[in-house]
Amino acid sequence: MITTQNLTKKYGDHLALNKLNLTVAEGNIYCLLGANGAGKTTTINLLLGFVQPTSGSASINGIDVTTNSREAKKYLAYIPENLMLYPNLSAMENLDYFSGIAGKSLSKTQLKAFLAEAGLQNNAFEKRIATFSKGMRQKVGISIALAKDAKVLLLDEPTPGLDPSASNEFGLLLQRLKEKGVATLMATHDIFRAREVATHIGIMKDGQLKQQFVASEISLGDLENAYLKTMDYKNALP
Amino acid sequence: MLKYNFKYELKQLLRNRWIQLLSVLLLLLFGFATYNGLQKIEEREKVITAAKEETLRNDESMVMLLDSLDRGMEISVSPWRYPNNPMVVGNYYPRLAAMPSHNFTFIATGQSDMYSHYKKPAVSRSGFMEDYTEMTSPIQLLFGSFDLAFVIVYLLPLLIIAFSYDILSAEKESGSLRLLAAQPIRIENWVLQKLGLRFFWLSVLVILAMLVIFFIFGLNPFVSIKLLLGLIGITIVYMLFWFAVAFLVNVWVGSSARNAVSLLGFWIFFVLLIPSVLNQLGSSLYPMPSRALMINQIRTLQADATKRQDEILDNYLRDHPEYAINDSTQQRTFWHSYFASENLVRQELAPVLENYDLQLEKQQEWISYFKWISPAIITQESITKMAGTSTSDYGNFRKQVEGFSETWRNHFVPYLYNNRNFTKADVVKLPQFEYMALRPKFLSAFTILGIAVIFLALGLFIAIKNRNHLVLSNA
Lengths: 238, 475
Description:
The structure holds two protein chains of two kinds. Chain A is of the alpha/beta class. In chain B, helix 1 crosses helix 8, helix 9 packs across helix 10 and helix 11 packs antiparallel against helix 14.
């Protein structure tokens, strides 16, 4: 579960995040939509403990990330926009390494099972990451989350650069994690994918959460209109 | 974390071909340096052997001549070269004062390019007249010799820089650092482990490459186990220092390009700038007296003494009544006057020569006082001391030669003033020179270790203080 309370981050005079109150419950996928500089990545950085909040608090699984970031990281997995694993190591080795340093020692059978669960083809297990597409790398990233038994998944712009089938496959993977009870927070520009996979959607602008929707209660068209309206975009197509 | 870092760091280094590249490079560098060092030793030993053989031949000839003279036979030598004259023996049959090399001399050329490894002190030349200015090619002096010390002090840090400059920044630039930092680990520990493992593997490669090269060249380094351990120890500690600098730069600076430039800046500062500035300051603060002026002074004093030879000899005999009493013939030759005047010249020149030595000592003291600023100086000095080619080794040799020169002269004084002939039986009584090498000390390795610890602590402090900055700062 992810919770933020009045989470605020200032960089000098610039207010990057303004009193964000957010809750992502177990088995929910929360998509944060917003233009560049809206505060999506700052939110993720704060949850990862990469930056300290100016005020407010955030917690992962009830653990305060500002005071106990390392403990909180035991329960979370993170997939950045460009998931760069070690190109000279195979998918198995990358999974073994990241699980190992996170404190999980896995057998070869377990490693293979997690890669397979993440949707990676068997013949790619022993191949070096250097030969992988972005979609394949993300599957390895998901396998790291699975192996870690993460309760929270943070995704920062995961879909750009994915072809439609890879993007769809990625959506299905998130659904599978949702069924396992993982709370997912995804920062994205992709309204279509957000509408497809999310349980909840929030629109951010200038560091503030402007609107929130239950995904099943809003159509794609209404979501797009709401987004453009929030962004003060005047030239929307009819 | 260490188990996984150890396992996958090695795999990555092997797959990146770093281990293979470093192995080949180290073998080539150590191989070429050892070859050069051994060539120099061979030349040095050749010269000493030739000088020894010449001394032996001269001695055989002297014994034959003395034997003939003892039997009252005529010999085919000018009377002024008859070896029954002790001054002829003292002057034309000198002993060899040699500074032989040892098992590890090949590791550093040191001062061996500047000084001769043997002298033949004769009675007509005082110790201070033994010049030590046999220079090698000025080009070589400018760039130094390509020996093991050069590889360790100058080139090894460059390999370490190439091997470690982007340990954190490469992860940052590729994006994998964010994924790493999202794991429940301390990122500064991770960097430290990565660098520690690279230090470990490079140390293993350096030691193996050294031993392989030694064996290829037919050397048995285990003969001098203390020196071998000393060489390995100082090299490892010096490498640790550079890895500590790399750690500081990695956590402090940022991008790979800036890290590389900063590390090269450190290299220039520690390896080139500090040693040359210290040398320059030492020479400026304690300038050496002009050698030309000193030689002029010697010549003036000698000319003056020559004019006053009779008076000087009388004074000398007044100071040494034992010679006047024992001398039944009262026969006085050139040598009697020469010895007496030489003594006077030496006494008058003593302050000039002492000043010369004093300035040299002050220069060395100045450098030794500040040498801890640069581990490169300490390492270079330690290796040359292990090789027996340091300034202090040649100073020690020079002092021993001067001492022997004095012993040699004094050996013939009673013969001269007692007007005794030199005989075949006296040959075995001739003083012999035996070089006593200085014992190298290995304490300086602790100084480098201390500096390395300071850099590591500083790096760790910065890393902990800027833990988040390490992950997010723009690469």
